[in-house]
Amino acid sequence: MATTWIAAHRAAVVNPHEGFKLFEVRGFADRTVRQAIRPAGGGDALRVRLSNRYGTTPLEIGGAHLARRTEGSGIDPATDIVLLFDGTTNVTVPPGEEIVSDPVVQAVTAGEELVLSLYLPGDTGLSTYSAIPYDIGYAVPGNQLTAEVLHDAEELPTGHFVTGIDVRAPEGTRIAVAFGDSWIEGMNTTPGTGSSFPAQLNRRLTHGWIVNQGISANRLLTDEIGDHLLARVERDVLDVPGVSHVIVHIGLNDLGLPGAIAFPEPGKPPTADDLITGLTALADRFHAAGLKVIGSTVGPYAGTVYPGYDTEEGQAERLRVNEWLGGDDHPFDAIVDLAAAVADPDQPTRIREEFNSGDGLHVNDAGAKALADAVDLALLAL
């Protein structure tokens, strides 16, 4: 059977040098960093992708190991494998560049928990990072690549340097990319449980799978947090091997962040026409690449705890965008009404209580399941 490389895990990354920061940024020196990864699909081999995209100094990797996870920072030593890069264990990644490991020929099963351990001997500078990784990571002093458990480890709520895993799968395997903001990435869902909206939707599929390219606080039109969505199209969707479908949720932060950043001074959000123009350009780029594009309504957020985020002007523009998405003039192949899936029926601008993570802006695990259940699987004929 002919095979090809397909993305099985993705983590969209953020520039730590941005002026506006919602998440802790940091670097490492003489540290072993251990991070868990759960591939969404399987194959007969894998390769790991590492990034120094936003680094300002060379990233020295003094060793990289992959193993199956037990619990917490623990690994099964019997499964420990040394990763190679062009046949060597040590590699230096120049600023702005990425690397892919040599293939590891072993069976990979969808949903299994793998652990990537990196030894970083030098000063990495601020790391290229992801805001919401699959699970909490760990860092300890020195080279502890083969340690069964990392004792007295520092916990890492953000991901570092890892952008994905590819698997060698049967030719013709097709996947979807979930693309957008925190509702895609899974902010405020339970770490390590695969409870994000895309992960829960993935479990409903019988063919293919979904990889997550969300960035919490990301915007359609404006950089920070992360490059804006239109700027991420090629790198985070078109270059993903195996992609045939895209699921998009974006717009919350375009409407809310201007006020939150400027608070207590009023911040002006983009107009609905601005967002409609951007969403149209987004869909057009995907269609030009031959992809099927599934859009979604912009979720509710009235009453959020974040000062300045919820404004009358922003709510009015959200309503106009959602009315356009609910009509016949939008350019998407289909629209999923994610807003309605989790809105309070009596106050539709708010997340219903049983789906509210507590901040009025993000859904909890049950809310993410409601989002996943709102998607007609006929739209994902992968």
From TrEMBL:
Tell me which InterPro entries the record gives.
GDSL_Rv0518-like, SGNH_hydro, SGNH_hydro_sf
What GO molecular function terms would the record report? hydrolase activity
Q: Can you name the source organism?
A: Streptomyces spongiae
Which residue range or ranges hold the SGNH hydrolase-type esterase domain?
Answer: 178-370
Q: Which UniProt keywords apply?
A: Hydrolase
**Know the name of this protein?**
SGNH/GDSL hydrolase family protein
Which domain of life does the UniProt lineage start with?
A: Bacteria
A Pfam cross-reference name: Lipase_GDSL_2
